[in-house]
Amino acid sequence: MPKRILQGTVTSTANAQTVTVSVERRFKHPVLQKTIKKSKKYRAHDEGDAFNVGDFVMIRECAPKSKTKRWEVMTPEMIEDHEKKRAENAQYERERWEAKQAGTEAAH
C-alpha cells in the first residue's frame, strides 16, 4: 500500500527527535458549497532535529515510532526519490494509455 504524503508547517519542536506539523486541507462544504479550511496536527519523527518552527515540510506515513508518532519528516533525498518514482509511474501510465489508444484505432 502506498504511503500517504502530506505537506504542512512545523508548529512545535519541544520534544527530542519530534516535530509537530500542522496540515491544512481545503474542501467544499457538501450542502453550502462554501470553501472550508480545516487543520490537523501530526507528530512526526525528525531524526536530526533539523527543522525549526515555521518551516514548510513534507511528512509521510511510517511504522509507529512511539505512542503518538506515525509519521516521519521527509529529507531532501526522500523527496527526490519520491519525485523520481512519480515521474516513472506517470511515464508508465502514459505508455499504457497510448498503447490502449493504438489498440482501439487498429480495431476500427
From TrEMBL:
CDD domains per the UniProt record, alphabetical: Ribosomal_uS17 (cd00364)
InterPro entries: NA-bd_OB-fold (IPR012340), Ribosomal_uS17 (IPR000266), Ribosomal_uS17_bact/chlr (IPR019984)
GO biological process assignments: translation
The keyword RNA-binding appears for this protein: yes
Source superkingdom: Bacteria
Annotated Pfam families: Ribosomal_S17 (PF00366)
Keyword Nucleotide-binding in annotation: no
Alphabetized UniProt keyword annotations: Ribonucleoprotein, Ribosomal protein, RNA-binding, rRNA-binding
Molecular function (Gene Ontology), one example: structural constituent of ribosome
Compositional bias annotation for Basic and acidic residues: 82-99
Disordered, as annotated region: 82-108
GO cellular component annotations of the record: cytosolic small ribosomal subunit
HAMAP family: Ribosomal_uS17_B
Family note: Belongs to the universal ribosomal protein uS17 family.
Complex and partners: Part of the 30S ribosomal subunit.
Protein task: One of the primary rRNA binding proteins, it binds specifically to the 5'-end of 16S ribosomal RNA.
Protein name per UniProt: Small ribosomal subunit protein uS17
Organism ancestry: Bacteria, Pseudomonadati, Pseudomonadota, Alphaproteobacteria, Rhodobacterales
Gene name per UniProt: rpsQ
